[in-house]
Amino acid sequence: MAYSGDPILVEELLYRPVHSLIDQSLHAKLGGFTTNGDGVGIGWYGDRAEPAVYKSTHPAWNDRDLREIASQIRTPLLFAHIRASSGTPVQRSNCHPFRHGRWLWMHNGSLAEFGTLKRDLVMAVDPALYPQIEGSTDTETLFFLALTFGLEDDPPTAVARAVALVEEVGHRHGVAYPVHMTVATTDGESIWVFRYSSEGETSSLYYSTDVAQVRQLHPELEALQQLGPDTRFVVSEPLRELPGAWHEVPDGSWGLVHRDKGEIHPFQPLVRV
């Protein structure tokens, strides 16, 4: 889940909605895993330019420290992620979101047969960035490939080039469908989202554009009544069903989410020439 808008307590976003992200860690409906208990992480922006990150290998529903800090953190931009490992170890350095400077990155999905592709992919990471890779996940590798290809200057082009590289390496190793992803990344001002898979069957991704409709979704959340019209949500699953409140990001698309605008564009891998 990603949130952008007026500062709000994290607990209002993580714990109060009926089908909150914490509830989804046990009862996900649309993803590949019903239970997502291999760790939890949040990233948020405060008084400094760079975001803070909290990560834990505890299941989200049983993380007392997360519950404790969520009642005290107020932020205008939050990334939150619950993890179901696709094969890499359950350890803090493998939990999302990942951070580099001002940037946060999180991902649902996988790079198929990552163990086979990993060496070729990490060798393509900029040598200056490589020492900053802390974990062993496909997600972090994809993040650092995007940084290598210019994420900080042009996120859509950088991600398109990173995905093209993964597909090229995958096909070279006989992997038919190397990429399956929904990605969210932010510099603390805007949020870019991507939904793409090599086989055209990608995990769900939704966004909201009208906070008034979100208020109808959650009359139990008094805090929403105080939020301004620029409030935006991005979620893997709707926090509660309400016709017209959530818009699905089409498969094979990228989107820009900002306080004063939202855009959706076609997404295609971009092979460098």
UniProtKB/TrEMBL annotation:
InterPro entries: EgtC-like (IPR026869), Gamma-glu_amide_hydrolase (IPR052373), GATase_2_dom (IPR017932), Ntn_hydrolases_N (IPR029055). Residues 1-273 form the Glutamine amidotransferase type-2 domain. Signal peptide: none annotated. PROSITE patterns: GATASE_TYPE_2. Gene3D superfamilies: Glutamine Phosphoribosylpyrophosphate, subunit 1, domain 1 (3.60.20.10). It comes from the Bacteria. Keywords: Glutamine amidotransferase. CDD domains: YafJ (cd01908). Coiled coil: none annotated. This is Glutamine amidotransferase. It comes from Modestobacter italicus (strain DSM 44449 / CECT 9708 / BC 501). The lineage of its organism: Bacteria, Bacillati, Actinomycetota, Actinomycetes, Geodermatophilales.
